[in-house]
Amino acid sequence: MIKKGISRQIVLHYFIVVFLALLLVELVFLFSMRTYYYDSIYNYLNSSTDVPQNYISDQSSPVKYQEIIQRYELGDTVEVQLLDTQGNVLQNSTNFRVDKPIQTGDIPQALAGSTGRWIGKQAGTGENVMAVTRQIQVNGDNYLVRYVTSLERVNQKLLTITMVAVGVGAAVLIIVLVVSLGLANSIVRPLNNIIGVSTLMAKGDFNARIKGNYPHEIGELASTLNYMAEEIIRSNQIKDDFISSISHELRTPLTGIKGWSETLVSGGFDPEETKLGMSIISKETDRLIGLVEEMLDFSKLQQNQMKMVIGEVNLKEVLQETMLNVWAKAEQKKIQLKLEPGARPFIVQADGNRLKQVFLNIVDNAIKFSPEESTIFIMLTEVSPERVRISIQDAGIGISQEHLEKVKDRFFQVNPNRGGTGLGLAITQQIVQLHNGEMYIDSEIEKGTTVMIELPLTKQQEILQLT
């Protein structure tokens, strides 16, 4: 007995489908064989009634009836009967007297002008017979010639064919059962392996792997689960690196704040030194606030809880404000910020503060990774009547193709030693997507990086452009 599960379902479905198909084929075959044998007998008996009547003598009735019977005889296996139009037997080849009129279905058919055919049990003997009747005319008188032959031998042969067909069908079903069991095992065995490895993964063992080259969808499932485990390990590693990095990022400003706080509390400093200490404390506090806000933003985005205040935003004005915010930092490295706003204003439906956050993060990264005395270009370009592109291009160290595919992933950092949380570009990407936009990064090592953001223009902007 096959236990419940996918194996039983596969075997059962295959067995039922093949059984029904086989049953239909055998029924059609057996019906065809029966029809063939019965039609062959009918055609033989029917053709025997085509005997010329010109040579029947006009003698007394018994002699004439006997002569007609002799003309139509077919041998010992076929009984020939001569009937009048009322169905009374006038003469037969066996000389067996029949007192009652014959009322089987072949008599009315013959009287109607066609060849009558009837299959049933012979009265008195109970034997299966076929009767074929046809109307003839002898010397102006109408008679019925009726052939009666036994079907017992034919039925016995048909029974033998039926038994052989049933045996062949049973053999086919056994083969199908064996093949379907093998097929079911070939599917269930790798599934059980996958279930076992998945259970280990569910318990936290992500080093477990599904081994073996499985075909088709099962192989794809195994590859997907292995890939999932690798991605979980990578994500856990990135998360661990993030925790280590953020711990370091938080410890550094906290150490500075604590150190200067204790120093200032001890007293004995002139106003200039006190002012310097307070300035460092304020600077490190802002740094801590920035880190915390970045993590809060990421948490809100992950939980779809970030609130957007949508309105009409002039991209040129937002970019100018962004440049003013980072001007001091760019000035320290003697980096020039050049804005190319395009020939006309570009208005988008967006949250101005969030867009400013996006541009600040990208421009700040460009300044951080650009060499001194270089130039950062900020350009507004019309992509189509419905979209605008903001490009921020630097001449910095660039990003390798290997890292370029992962740079927008959360917690990912090309160089963890440079500090940061690895969330900046992940947050930027999600904010852009919330504005129905797209962000692309094109970079080459030692030649610089270009970050492109495409946003949809407002409907009003499209109308103004068309007019």
From TrEMBL:
GO terms for molecular function: ATP binding; phosphorelay sensor kinase activity. Gene3D superfamilies: 1.10.287.130, 6.10.340.10, Histidine kinase-like ATPase, C-terminal domain. It catalyses: ATP + protein L-histidine = ADP + protein N-phospho-L-histidine. The keyword Transmembrane helix applies. Residues 245-459 form the Histidine kinase domain. Its main location: membrane. It is a multi-pass membrane protein. The chain crosses the membrane at residues 12-33, 158-184. GO terms for cellular component: plasma membrane. It is found in: Cell membrane. Residues 185-237 form the HAMP domain. Pfam families: HAMP, HATPase_c, HisKA. Keywords: ATP-binding, Cell membrane, Kinase, Membrane, Nucleotide-binding, Phosphoprotein, Transferase, Transmembrane, Transmembrane helix, Two-component regulatory system. The keyword Transmembrane helix applies. Its EC number is 2.7.13.3. CDD domains: HAMP (cd06225), HisKA (cd00082). This is histidine kinase. It comes from Paenibacillus nuruki.
